[in-house]
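quick one before i forget lol
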Amino acid sequence: MKTKKLNLALIAVLLGTGFVFATNNPLKQSQRYYFYDSEWHDTPPAPGSAQCQTNLNKICSGEFESMPETTSNDVSANPGATLIVRGNYQ
């Protein structure tokens, strides 16, 4: 009887842990977004239409957990960006 209760408690803990990981999803993958035409896009600009010109205060593209809500590609306005390519599409 003690073993059965212990097994049930262990199962409950494992299920609870699984629920936390499923809802918080710490392994959620980031997606790359690109800033051109004055807004964020989930695809790069068409080949030959724009090139990323170096500008250390701007972001050409970066990885975000979700579509950026800012209307700016300023580095300071996008603290959630990772693996950024600094510049401005022109």
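fyi Helices lie at 2-24.
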